[in-house]
Amino acid sequence: MPFSPELTGLDLAAVEAAVRRAAADEIMPRFRQLAAEDIVEKNGPHDLVTVADRRAEEHLTAALTALLPGSRVVGEEAVHADPSVLDALHGDAPVWIVDPVDGTRQFVHGDPGFATLVALAHRGEVLASWTYAPALGLMAIARRGAGARLNGVALRAGSPSPDAVLDVATSHYDFTDDDQKRVLAALETGGIAPRPCGSAGLEYLHIARGELDATAFSWENAWDHAAGLLLVHEAGGASGTVAGQPFRIEGGNALPFTAARDAETARRILGLLAAAN
Q1: Which of 23, 218, 231, 255 is geometrically suited to a Cys-Cys bond with 180, CB 3.0 to 4.6 A?
Q2: Where, if anywhere, are coiled coils annotated (predicted)?
């Protein structure tokens, strides 16, 4: 029988509990307690991984697949070790997309602005997501077609005030090449106030809360975006790529792409980016 969220009997509260438990057991005991040997550079001085990332992903991999037998996991650290793990995004099995510590740089520096991101997807469609910022006490949950909630309260992104200067979080300059910087510089114009992003997952939460107007991101790792994009959409927001297409979690997107509080804001950001692309 094909996978369907109605057929699995998946206990969404149990997923939330698993996310909270992984953070409580593997992440928070190490927050502001990391030793030098607990931190490793992956692809450069700005791309870090810690023992907390690895242990939390292992914890979540075991817990989530137990909750949904037959499911697969695409986790950031597993993909770093073996890129073929990404192939699960193209398969027929349901897939958990996991970023154990989104905002590792913040975590390493003792900044509470990091999150654990989990999304459940099937055949390219994100069905549910969990965005948990344990140091901030925030748990945002979205279900496709059923809305988004933060700590149990419904989220609505709303729309920017007419003629307001748009606050936009963009790919951080430490993680962009010269061409990406050139395209993103198109947002340095009247009526827009761009700034470098922090944790991508928390930037999506800021949009869903109506605290940030849009993002402009030039990378497409599924674990950074799957949870947040569903969260924004279920809070009434919009997203799209410079090619005018929906963002695909499987990859192969025209970049940059945006998520925004409403469709008009998304069109405005994409228009500027496409003209510079």
Answers
A1: 218
A2: none
| Distances from the Cα of 239 to the Cα of 89, 98, 108, 146, 198, angstroms | 20, 21, 30, 18, 19
For the entire predicted model, the pTM comes to 0.94
Q: Which residue has the tokens 């077609």?
A: 145
Average pLDDT over residues 185-212: 97
Cα Rg for the chain, rounded, in angstroms?
A: 18
β-sheet bridge partners, residue 73: 96
Angle between helices 51-67 and 12-22 (to 10 degrees): 160
**Res 48: pLDDT:** 73
56's CB contacts (< 8 A; 6+ apart) are 22, 23, 26, 27, 100, 101, 116
Greater confidence (40 vs 26) lies with: 26
The pLDDT of 197-202, averaged and rounded, is: 96
Helix-strand-coil split of the chain, %, nearest 5: 40, 25, 35
Q: What is the mean pLDDT of residues 142-171?
A: 96
